[in-house]
Design brief:
Length: about 300
Protein backbone atom coordinates (compact mmCIF):
# COMPACT_ATOMS: atom_id res chain seq x y z
CA UNK A 1 0.00 0.00 0.00
CA UNK A 2 2.88 2.37 0.81
CA UNK A 3 4.32 1.91 -2.68
CA UNK A 4 0.93 2.67 -4.22
CA UNK A 5 0.55 5.88 -2.23
CA UNK A 6 4.12 6.93 -3.03
CA UNK A 7 3.52 6.34 -6.73
CA UNK A 8 0.25 8.30 -6.62
CA UNK A 9 1.83 11.24 -4.79
CA UNK A 10 4.82 11.36 -7.16
CA UNK A 11 2.52 11.28 -10.20
CA UNK A 12 0.29 13.88 -8.56
CA UNK A 13 3.17 16.37 -8.38
CA UNK A 14 3.53 16.12 -12.18
CA UNK A 15 -0.21 16.59 -12.77
CA UNK A 16 -0.22 19.50 -10.31
CA UNK A 17 1.69 21.58 -12.86
CA UNK A 18 -1.05 20.94 -15.42
CA UNK A 19 -3.70 21.79 -12.81
CA UNK A 20 -2.05 25.15 -12.18
CA UNK A 21 -2.28 25.80 -15.92
CA UNK A 22 -5.99 24.95 -15.87
CA UNK A 23 -6.43 27.22 -12.82
CA UNK A 24 -5.02 30.19 -14.75
CA UNK A 25 -7.58 29.91 -17.53
CA UNK A 26 -10.57 28.53 -15.63
CA UNK A 27 -10.38 30.70 -12.52
CA UNK A 28 -8.20 33.71 -13.31
CA UNK A 29 -9.23 34.34 -16.93
CA UNK A 30 -12.70 32.77 -16.52
CA UNK A 31 -12.23 30.80 -19.76
CA UNK A 32 -12.93 27.10 -20.30
CA UNK A 33 -9.87 26.42 -22.45
CA UNK A 34 -9.98 23.07 -24.26
CA UNK A 35 -6.56 23.70 -25.79
CA UNK A 36 -5.31 21.79 -22.74
CA UNK A 37 -6.32 18.46 -24.28
CA UNK A 38 -4.03 19.15 -27.23
CA UNK A 39 -1.18 21.05 -25.58
CA UNK A 40 -0.49 18.37 -22.96
CA UNK A 41 -0.01 15.86 -25.77
CA UNK A 42 2.06 18.41 -27.71
CA UNK A 43 4.42 18.81 -24.76
CA UNK A 44 4.78 15.04 -24.55
CA UNK A 45 5.25 14.69 -28.32
CA UNK A 46 7.93 17.37 -28.57
CA UNK A 47 9.83 16.05 -25.56
CA UNK A 48 9.65 12.46 -26.81
CA UNK A 49 10.74 13.41 -30.33
CA UNK A 50 13.83 15.31 -29.25
CA UNK A 51 14.79 12.90 -26.47
CA UNK A 52 14.58 10.03 -28.97
CA UNK A 53 16.82 12.10 -31.26
CA UNK A 54 19.48 12.25 -28.54
CA UNK A 55 18.82 15.70 -27.07
CA UNK A 56 19.32 16.38 -23.37
CA UNK A 57 15.99 15.62 -21.60
CA UNK A 58 15.88 19.02 -19.86
CA UNK A 59 16.50 20.84 -23.14
CA UNK A 60 13.76 18.76 -24.78
CA UNK A 61 11.43 19.63 -21.91
CA UNK A 62 12.21 23.32 -22.45
CA UNK A 63 11.23 22.99 -26.11
CA UNK A 64 8.04 21.25 -25.01
CA UNK A 65 7.16 24.26 -22.85
CA UNK A 66 7.71 26.59 -25.81
CA UNK A 67 5.47 24.42 -28.00
CA UNK A 68 2.68 24.63 -25.41
CA UNK A 69 3.07 28.40 -25.22
CA UNK A 70 2.69 28.62 -29.01
CA UNK A 71 -0.47 26.50 -28.81
CA UNK A 72 -1.88 28.87 -26.18
CA UNK A 73 -0.95 31.85 -28.34
CA UNK A 74 -2.81 30.29 -31.31
CA UNK A 75 -5.96 29.98 -29.22
CA UNK A 76 -5.53 33.52 -27.92
CA UNK A 77 -5.15 35.00 -31.39
CA UNK A 78 -8.18 33.10 -32.66
CA UNK A 79 -10.20 34.62 -29.82
CA UNK A 80 -8.80 38.14 -29.58
CA UNK A 81 -8.04 38.88 -33.25
CA UNK A 82 -10.63 36.81 -35.11
CA UNK A 83 -13.34 37.21 -32.43
CA UNK A 84 -13.96 33.48 -32.18
CA UNK A 85 -15.54 32.53 -28.81
CA UNK A 86 -12.85 31.19 -26.46
CA UNK A 87 -14.46 27.76 -26.07
CA UNK A 88 -14.62 27.26 -29.84
CA UNK A 89 -11.11 28.71 -30.31
CA UNK A 90 -9.77 26.13 -27.86
CA UNK A 91 -11.59 23.33 -29.67
CA UNK A 92 -10.16 24.44 -33.02
CA UNK A 93 -6.63 24.53 -31.66
CA UNK A 94 -7.10 21.17 -29.94
CA UNK A 95 -8.24 19.56 -33.20
CA UNK A 96 -5.35 21.10 -35.12
CA UNK A 97 -2.84 19.91 -32.51
CA UNK A 98 -3.90 16.29 -33.04
CA UNK A 99 -2.51 16.36 -36.58
CA UNK A 100 0.48 18.47 -35.52
CA UNK A 101 1.35 15.98 -32.79
CA UNK A 102 1.23 13.13 -35.29
CA UNK A 103 3.57 15.10 -37.55
CA UNK A 104 5.97 15.76 -34.68
CA UNK A 105 6.16 12.12 -33.57
CA UNK A 106 5.87 10.59 -37.01
CA UNK A 107 3.57 7.94 -35.58
CA UNK A 108 0.90 7.64 -32.93
CA UNK A 109 3.19 6.37 -30.16
CA UNK A 110 6.86 7.04 -29.34
CA UNK A 111 8.48 4.69 -26.76
CA UNK A 112 11.18 6.08 -24.47
CA UNK A 113 12.26 2.85 -22.77
CA UNK A 114 15.88 2.96 -23.96
CA UNK A 115 16.48 6.68 -23.48
CA UNK A 116 17.43 8.91 -20.56
CA UNK A 117 14.86 11.14 -18.91
CA UNK A 118 14.97 14.01 -16.43
CA UNK A 119 14.55 11.36 -13.73
CA UNK A 120 17.39 9.04 -14.80
CA UNK A 121 20.30 10.62 -12.94
CA UNK A 122 18.38 10.90 -9.69
CA UNK A 123 17.10 7.32 -9.98
CA UNK A 124 20.68 6.08 -9.84
CA UNK A 125 21.43 8.43 -6.93
CA UNK A 126 18.51 7.21 -4.77
CA UNK A 127 19.33 3.55 -5.31
CA UNK A 128 17.08 2.72 -8.24
CA UNK A 129 13.76 3.79 -6.68
CA UNK A 130 11.97 5.47 -9.57
CA UNK A 131 9.04 6.75 -7.51
CA UNK A 132 11.35 8.60 -5.11
CA UNK A 133 13.17 10.19 -8.05
CA UNK A 134 9.89 11.26 -9.63
CA UNK A 135 8.67 12.63 -6.29
CA UNK A 136 11.79 14.74 -5.78
CA UNK A 137 11.87 16.11 -9.34
CA UNK A 138 8.10 16.61 -9.28
CA UNK A 139 8.19 18.53 -6.01
CA UNK A 140 11.04 20.73 -7.23
CA UNK A 141 9.29 21.50 -10.52
CA UNK A 142 5.90 22.00 -8.86
CA UNK A 143 7.45 24.33 -6.27
CA UNK A 144 9.27 26.32 -8.95
CA UNK A 145 6.08 26.68 -11.01
CA UNK A 146 4.06 27.68 -7.92
CA UNK A 147 6.61 30.33 -6.94
CA UNK A 148 6.66 31.65 -10.51
CA UNK A 149 2.85 31.76 -10.63
CA UNK A 150 2.64 33.59 -7.29
CA UNK A 151 5.35 36.06 -8.36
CA UNK A 152 4.00 36.69 -11.86
CA UNK A 153 0.43 37.40 -10.80
CA UNK A 154 1.74 39.92 -8.31
CA UNK A 155 3.45 41.92 -11.06
CA UNK A 156 1.78 44.72 -13.01
CA UNK A 157 1.18 42.47 -16.03
CA UNK A 158 -0.08 39.65 -13.82
CA UNK A 159 -2.50 42.00 -12.08
CA UNK A 160 -3.68 43.08 -15.54
CA UNK A 161 -4.41 39.45 -16.41
CA UNK A 162 -6.33 39.01 -13.17
CA UNK A 163 -8.28 42.24 -13.73
CA UNK A 164 -9.15 41.12 -17.26
CA UNK A 165 -10.52 37.83 -16.01
CA UNK A 166 -12.47 39.56 -13.25
CA UNK A 167 -14.10 42.31 -15.34
CA UNK A 168 -13.00 43.02 -18.90
CA UNK A 169 -15.00 46.23 -19.26
CA UNK A 170 -13.57 47.70 -16.08
CA UNK A 171 -10.07 46.58 -17.08
CA UNK A 172 -10.41 48.34 -20.45
CA UNK A 173 -11.66 51.45 -18.67
CA UNK A 174 -8.42 51.42 -16.67
CA UNK A 175 -6.39 51.40 -19.89
CA UNK A 176 -5.53 47.68 -19.86
CA UNK A 177 -5.18 45.96 -23.23
CA UNK A 178 -7.43 43.02 -22.40
CA UNK A 179 -6.62 41.19 -25.64
CA UNK A 180 -2.94 41.08 -24.77
CA UNK A 181 -3.73 40.01 -21.22
CA UNK A 182 -5.85 37.11 -22.45
CA UNK A 183 -3.07 36.04 -24.82
CA UNK A 184 -0.50 36.18 -22.01
CA UNK A 185 -2.71 34.12 -19.71
CA UNK A 186 -3.31 31.46 -22.36
CA UNK A 187 0.40 31.33 -23.27
CA UNK A 188 1.48 30.78 -19.65
CA UNK A 189 -1.32 28.30 -18.98
CA UNK A 190 -0.58 26.07 -21.95
CA UNK A 191 3.17 26.36 -21.38
CA UNK A 192 2.62 24.84 -17.93
CA UNK A 193 0.31 22.18 -19.36
CA UNK A 194 2.93 21.20 -21.96
CA UNK A 195 5.60 21.13 -19.22
CA UNK A 196 3.43 18.68 -17.31
CA UNK A 197 2.87 16.61 -20.46
CA UNK A 198 6.62 16.37 -21.10
CA UNK A 199 7.28 15.17 -17.53
CA UNK A 200 4.39 12.69 -17.63
CA UNK A 201 5.64 11.22 -20.93
CA UNK A 202 9.12 10.72 -19.46
CA UNK A 203 7.59 9.18 -16.35
CA UNK A 204 5.51 6.64 -18.28
CA UNK A 205 8.30 6.11 -20.87
CA UNK A 206 6.18 6.86 -23.91
CA UNK A 207 4.27 9.59 -25.64
CA UNK A 208 0.91 8.89 -27.24
CA UNK A 209 -1.21 11.11 -29.45
CA UNK A 210 -4.29 10.20 -27.39
CA UNK A 211 -2.80 10.97 -23.97
CA UNK A 212 -4.54 14.34 -23.74
CA UNK A 213 -8.04 12.88 -23.95
CA UNK A 214 -9.96 13.80 -20.80
CA UNK A 215 -7.08 15.82 -19.32
CA UNK A 216 -9.24 18.94 -18.93
CA UNK A 217 -11.65 16.94 -16.74
CA UNK A 218 -8.74 15.62 -14.67
CA UNK A 219 -7.46 19.17 -14.26
CA UNK A 220 -10.88 20.46 -13.22
CA UNK A 221 -11.37 17.57 -10.80
CA UNK A 222 -8.00 18.27 -9.16
CA UNK A 223 -8.69 22.00 -9.06
CA UNK A 224 -12.15 21.70 -7.55
CA UNK A 225 -11.11 19.06 -4.99
CA UNK A 226 -8.27 21.33 -3.89
CA UNK A 227 -10.51 24.39 -3.63
CA UNK A 228 -13.32 22.58 -1.79
CA UNK A 229 -11.09 20.86 0.75
CA UNK A 230 -8.27 23.36 1.27
CA UNK A 231 -9.32 26.82 0.07
CA UNK A 232 -13.08 27.11 0.38
CA UNK A 233 -13.17 30.37 2.36
CA UNK A 234 -9.93 32.18 1.67
CA UNK A 235 -8.83 35.16 -0.40
CA UNK A 236 -5.15 34.24 -0.07
CA UNK A 237 -3.71 33.68 -3.54
CA UNK A 238 -0.76 31.82 -2.02
CA UNK A 239 -3.07 29.40 -0.23
CA UNK A 240 -5.16 28.83 -3.36
CA UNK A 241 -2.04 27.85 -5.35
CA UNK A 242 -1.05 25.47 -2.56
CA UNK A 243 -4.58 24.03 -2.48
CA UNK A 244 -4.57 23.45 -6.25
CA UNK A 245 -1.35 21.43 -6.00
CA UNK A 246 -2.71 19.43 -3.05
CA UNK A 247 -5.90 18.77 -5.00
CA UNK A 248 -3.94 17.23 -7.87
CA UNK A 249 -2.01 14.98 -5.49
CA UNK A 250 -5.16 13.97 -3.59
CA UNK A 251 -6.96 13.18 -6.86
CA UNK A 252 -4.16 10.78 -7.89
CA UNK A 253 -4.32 9.14 -4.45
CA UNK A 254 -8.10 8.68 -4.81
CA UNK A 255 -7.65 7.14 -8.26
CA UNK A 256 -4.95 4.79 -6.98
CA UNK A 257 -7.13 3.67 -4.07
CA UNK A 258 -10.25 3.03 -6.16
CA UNK A 259 -8.17 1.01 -8.63
CA UNK A 260 -6.70 -0.92 -5.71
CA UNK A 261 -10.24 -1.54 -4.47
CA UNK A 262 -11.07 -3.24 -7.78
CA UNK A 263 -12.62 -0.54 -9.99
CA UNK A 264 -12.47 -1.31 -13.70
CA UNK A 265 -9.94 1.12 -15.29
CA UNK A 266 -12.46 1.66 -18.09
CA UNK A 267 -14.73 3.36 -15.55
CA UNK A 268 -12.15 5.95 -14.46
CA UNK A 269 -13.38 8.73 -16.74
CA UNK A 270 -16.95 8.14 -15.55
CA UNK A 271 -15.74 8.27 -11.94
CA UNK A 272 -13.86 11.52 -12.65
CA UNK A 273 -16.88 13.11 -14.34
CA UNK A 274 -19.13 12.20 -11.40
CA UNK A 275 -16.52 13.56 -8.96
CA UNK A 276 -16.36 16.89 -10.82
CA UNK A 277 -20.16 17.12 -10.99
CA UNK A 278 -20.48 16.48 -7.25
CA UNK A 279 -17.79 19.04 -6.37
CA UNK A 280 -19.32 21.67 -8.67
CA UNK A 281 -22.73 21.13 -7.15
CA UNK A 282 -21.52 21.52 -3.54
CA UNK A 283 -22.34 25.26 -3.36
CA UNK A 284 -25.88 24.58 -4.60
CA UNK A 285 -26.26 21.69 -2.17
CA UNK A 286 -25.00 23.86 0.68
CA UNK A 287 -27.51 26.57 -0.29
CA UNK A 288 -30.39 24.07 -0.27
CA UNK A 289 -29.24 22.71 3.07
CA UNK A 290 -29.08 26.19 4.64
CA UNK A 291 -32.58 26.94 3.30
CA UNK A 292 -33.93 23.74 4.84
CA UNK A 293 -32.23 24.48 8.18
CA UNK A 294 -33.64 28.02 8.24
CA UNK A 295 -37.14 26.80 7.39
CA UNK A 296 -36.96 24.16 10.15
CA UNK A 297 -35.78 26.75 12.69
CA UNK A 298 -38.52 29.15 11.56
CA UNK A 299 -41.14 26.46 11.96
CA UNK A 300 -39.98 25.66 15.48
CA UNK A 301 -40.03 29.35 16.45
CA UNK A 302 -43.56 29.79 15.09
CA UNK A 303 -44.68 26.72 16.96
Amino acid sequence: MGAIILGAVSLGTLWAIMTLGVYITYRILDIADLTVEGSIATGAAVAAHFIESGMNPWAATGLAIISGMLAGLATGLLHTKLRIPPLLAGILTMIALYSINLRIMGRSNVPLLQTDSVFTGLINFVGGNKNVSILIIGLLCCTAVSVFTYWFFGTEIGCGVRATGSNQQMARAQGINTGNMINIGLVISNGLVAFSGALIAQNQSFSDVQMGTGSIVIGLASLIIGEVLFAMKTNSFKRVIFAVCLGAILYRIIIALVLKAGMNPNDLKLFTAITVAICLSLPVGRSYLMTIIKSVKGGRENA
